[in-house]
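Hi everyone,

Forwarding the result from last night's run.
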Amino acid sequence: MEIQVEMPVADAEVFTTKMAELQHAESCFRKACHSVNLLDQKLDALTCRYQRAENQKGFRYNLRLKLATLEGMRASYYEYACLKGNVIVDLRSLLSDMLQCC
């Protein structure tokens, strides 16, 4: 995405750097969201298995440990995606302000 805006060289370099940061943050955000969706699917499948193992205590314990692990991983990826989302909002706001100043 090329933007033709006349601005001082130093500001243009900062703008280009911030655009690169934005693209990187958006890429990380998309990957984190994809990982959260995959973990949601795995959690659903594992929850079904856990519920089917109603009378088998040994299997249920093992599945419960796996569920707890997946839930923790999902929470971590979700938190990371939220952080990247906030970075994206901040960078877009900054870039918008930079464009309006020129």
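The radius of gyration is 22 Å.

Cheers,
N.
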